[in-house]
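Following up on my earlier thread - several people asked me to post the actual chain instead of describing it. Fair enough. Here it is, all 444 residues.
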Amino acid sequence: MKEQTQKYVEYFTGWERRLNGASHTPVHALRKAALQKFVSLGFPTTKDEEWRFTNVTPIAAGDFHPVLDSADHAAIEGDVSRQALPVADAVRLVFVDGHYVQGLSKVGHLPPGADIGSLAEAIAKDPEFIQRQLEGRSAFGENAFTALNTAFLIDGAFIRLPDGLEMKSPIHCLFLASGGKDPFLSTPRNLILVGRNASVSIVETYASTGRNIHWTNVLTEVRVGEGALVEHDRIQIESADAFHVGTVRILQERESKVTANSITLGGKLVRNDVTAVFGGDDAECTLNGLSVATGDQHVDNHTVIDHALPNCASHELYKSILDGRARGVFNGKIFVRKDAQKTDAKQTNKTLLLSDDATIDTKPQLEIFADDVKCTHGATVGQLDDEQVFYLRSRGIGEADARDLLTFAFATDIINRIHVEPLRAVLDTLLRARLRQGRVADEG
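Reply from S.P.:
Thanks for posting it. Predicted structure:
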């Protein structure tokens, strides 16, 4: 196990030598502490309860070179155009292999008090402020992946919105893996700070420019001020040879509302961790998720909603569509603390298996320490309803098209919960193509 972490120590040491004066900044002190934590933790194994259904050996044993410097990426301008959100006045931040590319981004004139751009630039301008934002109670100690992300914290999206600002158009953060002959690692770190009574829709897209082997290890922190309204949409459509470990942490203040949608359509091995914590009362959180996998894909969704204070509501619906020999995992936890009276929490996981070889391990959980609450949770696993297929066929629809229609309807329940209409249209097209590809692959 030591050799699995030692190679990243060597990469870090070589990088540190090139930082010169930057190696003495508060942010770099955080990096060094995170590296030590990463080495002490080591990569998780299936003996760890939180990882017992997901074997990360292909990641731990691989030699992924961290991308430590930005390069010229003018050649992928066409990929940016294809992946860009079709909203004329949307702010667009483009990152290639984890590094901000100003020439491909579109920020324009921002409202007074808004700061939207590169985390690396924010660190250069005010390293002490960024360090204070990053060194929270769990800055990097959750597991080896969050620790490694912090150790190689270089760049990512930085969004800071002042009190009362209403962003009428979405902010699109586009992360592209550019490719290369050797496997590589990108470690974006996104920091989103939303002021009191502000509102914003933020879209994160993770995509590949080719069938290259790469690993994205990303951490997004969202801090939502009192009375703020936030929608956070996370779309993962990387190549079939990609590895992706994504962590989202959400902290909500009183009377705030957050909707976090997670859509996973790509990747070979994918782990999504979403944690939402109520830091104030009378707040509301909604988590929605959709995973579509076929072949030998593995998609693991872990969610935690922490009801730490009273009068808060949470709603969670995660769905999976699994074909071929794909494997899915869902582990959703809802904690209701002793003082969190009047909690209203609902959690549902639904899985559609399209082949006999596809599998799902699902474990919805409730841990309740308060007595005046309304909490429900449940999971269903099944196949397409033969009677519904027969009904559609009796109306002149072919069997393959009938199955596609029913499968699409199962998935669009999640897509339609996204409020950014242009994104819904894009996902509609992607989903149809993805389901069609899965069926063709399964038939082959």
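The CA atoms of residues 27 and 296 lie 39 Å apart. That should answer part of your original question.
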